[in-house]
């Protein structure tokens, strides 16, 4: 019997990058998972942190829904992953806060009993590394610059996945496709997306430094596994990078190509990426 997982794309991915969600769902189903969604889900709450102490109620509500379904959550966004894991850590450490949260959830006939299993897409794919290797039918000859979503790894004592400052998980997933994971000077630095709502100019400066570092390394394109990273480095790239646009691909899209799937099936519409792929696929 296949394992049921709840795919939680988050607000940004749902509204701006549905191709990321679709490619991830196809890949997870191909691995044998029964992929379902979280009915009546809300924003994870991370965007409200710092604005109101009630932000954790959004997070707890989603976790309580998942607990009721008795299935693990798989996330596509670093911010969502971080919020879900940090809030559970907080509630386990503060029983009084958990009681207060559950008093509010009781009005909706919900109850949260941490811990609800939460994994980012990178984590669940890495656990199936061997299976993915055996599924590869097309080796990709590209140099790919990995963009590590900071909040999936930090703080290390809560996230408990990979090295918090020098992760290697994306390198392992990129290389199974035959592609080269291209090192670059800003590889382990934040892309700046977390600053966008507070200080857009600082976010653009950080994005510019990261994009220029990837280009200087000789990479063909960047690879993201987070809607926030993709928003800054691809969708908003023209705000700070005025040279030839540098293409960006989502993790499940790259793996799907290596499995023999077409760019169209993977939702790849970027013209620079399409041109690169026509020589190979």
From TrEMBL:
Residue ranges of domain Cysteine-rich in the record: 7-85, 148-233
Keyword Oxidoreductase: yes
InterPro entries per the UniProt record, alphabetical: Cys_rich_dom, HdrB/HdrD_reductase
Record carries keyword Oxidoreductase: yes
Pfam families listed in its UniProt record: CCG (PF02754)
Keywords associated with the record: Oxidoreductase
Gene Ontology molecular function: any one: oxidoreductase activity
The protein, known as: Succinate dehydrogenase/fumarate reductase iron-sulfur subunit
Lineage per the UniProt record: Bacteria, Bacillati, Bacillota, Clostridia, Neomoorellales
């Amino acid at each position: 019997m296949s394992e049921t997982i709840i795919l939680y794309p988050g607000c940004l991915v749902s509204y701006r990058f549905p191709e990321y969600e679709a490619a991830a769902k196809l890949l997870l189903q191909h691995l044998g998972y029964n992929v379902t969604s979280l009915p009546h889900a809300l924003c994870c709450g991370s965007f409200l942190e710092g604005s109101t102490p009630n932000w954790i109620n959004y997070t707890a509500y989603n976790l309580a829904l998942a607990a009721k379904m008795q299935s693990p959550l798989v996330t596509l966004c670093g911010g969502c992953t971080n919020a879900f894991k940090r809030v559970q850590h907080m509630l386990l450490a503060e029983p009084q806060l958990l009681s207060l949260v559950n008093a509010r959830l009781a009005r909706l006939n919900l109850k949260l009993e941490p811990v609800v299993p939460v994994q980012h897409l990178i984590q669940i794919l890495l656990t199936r590394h061997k299976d993915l290797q055996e599924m590869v039918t097309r080796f990709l000859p590209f140099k790919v610059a990995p963009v590590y979503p900071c909040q999936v790894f930090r703080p290390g004592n809560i996230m408990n996945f990979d090295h918090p400052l020098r992760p290697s998980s994306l390198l392992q997933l990129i290389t199974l496709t035959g592609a080269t994971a291209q090192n670059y000077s800003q590889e382990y630095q934040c892309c700046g997306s977390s600053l966008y709502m507070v200080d857009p100019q600082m976010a653009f400066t950080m994005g510019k430094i990261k994009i220029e570092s990837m280009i200087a390394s000789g990479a063909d394109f960047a690879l993201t596994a987070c809607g926030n990273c993709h928003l800054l480095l691809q969708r908003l790239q023209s705000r700070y990078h005025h040279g030839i646009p540098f293409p960006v691909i989502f993790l499940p899209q790259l793996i799907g190509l290596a499995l023999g799937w077409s760019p169209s099936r993977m939702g790849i519409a970027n013209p620079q990426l399409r041109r690169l792929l026509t020589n190979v696929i």
